[in-house]
Amino acid sequence: MRKCLVAVFWVCVVSLAFAGIGSAEEAQAPKAPAEQDMDYAYGIAKTVASDSVTISEYNYMTGEDEDVVYVVNPETKLENIKSLQEIAAGDDVDIGFVTKDAKKIALSIAVEKAPPEEVLSVDMNEENGENGTTEAKKDEPLVL
Q1: With 60 as the cut, is the pLDDT of residue 103 above it?
Q2: Which residues pair with 99 in a beta bridge?
Q3: Is the separation of the CB atoms in 49 and 89 below 8 Å?
Q4: In this structure, are residues 106 and 71 in contact, taking their beta carbons and an 8 Å threshold?
Q5: Do 120 and 135 meet the contact criterion of CB atoms below 8 Å apart?
Q6: Do 114 and 88 form a contact (C-beta atoms < 8 A)?
Q7: What integer is the mean pLDDT of 79-101?
Q8: Collapsing DSSP states into helix, strand and coil, what is residue 71?
């Protein structure tokens, strides 16, 4: 009889331990609503204001580019720039956003600056010590 009570005791201890582990997993803080519902957009910067950024992005439903306005607030995180004034028309822009009250609120903005219009140079024979340089202007094919 005593062995049976000891066995029941250990079964209860083990069951409670596993129940505690399951409760600890459930007690973890859920993600913030903004993180759960965040969408992403990519496009070319068109205009910038103190409280918004407009980008031209591809609409997969219509198959055409369209201008979309994203609201910017003090909580918006900026990457590769220090302020919105550094964004220029033609820059590549990635925006993480949430939609609230039919407005797209930017949570993060990452900018890749448009390369300057300059001549690109590629050294074809660098390892042989020969100088076989080929040049091309931006948006022209590079013929090797």
Answers
A1: yes
A2: 104
A3: no
A4: yes
A5: yes
A6: yes
A7: 94
A8: strand
